Structure formats: C-alpha cells, structure tokens
Amino acid sequence: MSENRRVVDRLLVIANFSEHRQTIPTSICDVLGSREVEDILNGERKPYHQNIMFDAYDIKWLKVIEH
Fold it and tell me: How far apart are the first and last CA of the chain?
C-alpha cells in the first residue's frame, strides 16, 4: 500500500504600495521556514543576510529555494 503524502509549497507575496523605495529585512521570510528565497516573478534569489529591496509599487512572490 502506498503512503499518501501531501506536498505543500509555501509562497509569500509582499507588495509595496508606496511611491517610494522600501527595504524589508529578510527575516520576514521566516514564515516560510527559510531565509533562502527566490522571487518566482523574476528568478532573483536572496540569501538570508541581505535585505529585500522594493522599488515603488513593486511586488515579490517569494518561495523557498529547493536544494
């Protein structure tokens, strides 16, 4: 008998609704269980030691980088 397993992908979507550039600490990604994330919209990867920069009206869809 095979074991039923459910694969759960977590996604964190963050938006900047301001006309000004914003910086958010990467610790926001702790809700994903990892600070090594990739923006699936543009492929940009951010390691845990860098802040995440948002341009005016920017949006990022972040997921954990699978190793």
Answer: 29
